[in-house]
Amino acid sequence: MSPGPNPPDYIINPPITIPNPPEYIPSPPKRTPNPPIYKPPVVYPAPILPPPPSHEVHQFAVWCVAKPSVPDPIIQEAMDYACGSGADCNSIQPNGQCFQPNTLLSHASYAFNSYWQSRKVTGGTCDFGGTAMLVAIDPSSYGCQYIYT
C-alpha cells in the first residue's frame, strides 16, 4: 500500500486574548464648601460680679459705644435691652438732649454708655452680646454730653 496523503499541517497560533475594558471607578462628587454661618450675638444680662480690685480700675476716662460693624437689627436688640434694664434713654427720645444725631449707632452708643457707667462698679460690662466696645475718646457731640463717672 502506498502511503496516503499526508495529514494537513496545523499551525498553532497563540491564543487570542481580548483585553477587558478598564474598570470604571467613579470619582467622588465635587463639593463646594458651604459658606460659614455666623449666628448673631446673643444679648444676655450682664453677669453680676464683684467690682474689680482697685489696681485694675482704669486711670483714664473710657466710654462704652456701639460697634459700627454690627448689623442694625442686632444693635437695636441690644439697645432695647439696655433701655429696658436701667439705661437713661429719655435723652435719645425725640426732642431729647441727645436725639441728634438721629442714628441708631448714636442712640445705641448713648444707651450702652449710660447703662455701663451706672453698672460698672458692680461688675457690669460693656459687651451687650458683642455689640459694644470701650473707647478712650469722648463720643459726646452736638451738645450731648455722654455720662462719665
List the helices and strands and how they pair.
Elements: E1 63-66, H1 72-84, H2 104-119, E2 132-135
Antiparallel strand pairs: 1-2
Helix pairs in contact: 1-2
Could you explain the architecture of this structure?
This protein has a two-stranded antiparallel ribbon. Helices cover 19% and strands 5% of the residues. Mean pLDDT is 78; it is low at 49-58. It has helices spanning 72-84, 104-119; strands at residues 63-66, 132-135. α1 runs parallel beside α2. The chain has two helices and two strands. The protein has a domain at 54-135.
Query: What is the helix/strand order?
Result: EHHE
Gyration radius (Cα, Å) is 39 Å
Spans with pLDDT under 50 lasting ≥5 residues?
Answer: 49-58
Q: Helix share of residues?
A: 10-25%
Number of strands: 2
The outline comes out as: rod-shaped
Structural class: mainly alpha
- Please indicate the percent range of residues in DSSP E strands (runs of 2 or more): 5-15%
Question: What does the average pLDDT come to?
Answer: 78
> What's the arrangement of strands in the largest beta sheet?
1-2
Span between N and C termini? 140 Å
Give the count of helical stretches.
2
Q: How is the biggest beta sheet arranged? A: 2 strands, antiparallel
Short structural description:
With 149 residues, the protein is mainly alpha-helical. It has helices at 72-84, 104-119, and strands spanning 63-66, 132-135. It has 2 helices and 2 strands.
